[in-house]
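Human: We require from you a standard protein entry with sequence in single-letter code and fold as tokens, and nothing else.

Assistant:
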Amino acid sequence: RELGLRKFELSDKEWTVVEQLHMVLMVLKDATLFFSQATPNLTTMTIIPAMDHIDHQLQMFARDRKYLPSICAAVTVLLVRKTLNCYYSLTDNSKVYRIAMSEHLSSIF
């Protein structure tokens, strides 16, 4: 029996887009789960390296030629520049971050 759903079937190219987008979104899902932990170990000193890791992962997606140009462009423009930079700027303005960084630097020098 035909239900008229054939028009909604994805093409092979559309499946490729879905699979590649899924890989990118998994980075953000993992980050969300990491930052949502109710753990006392989630401090400013662990958040910055985690954000750097996310940035590195997204940069890899943006530069890897095996991904479609549309995926690379979305990662570059929307995720890396806007979302991550927003979090970095919020962190930079945090008093806790400034105190932690000054303590960290004073322990080095």
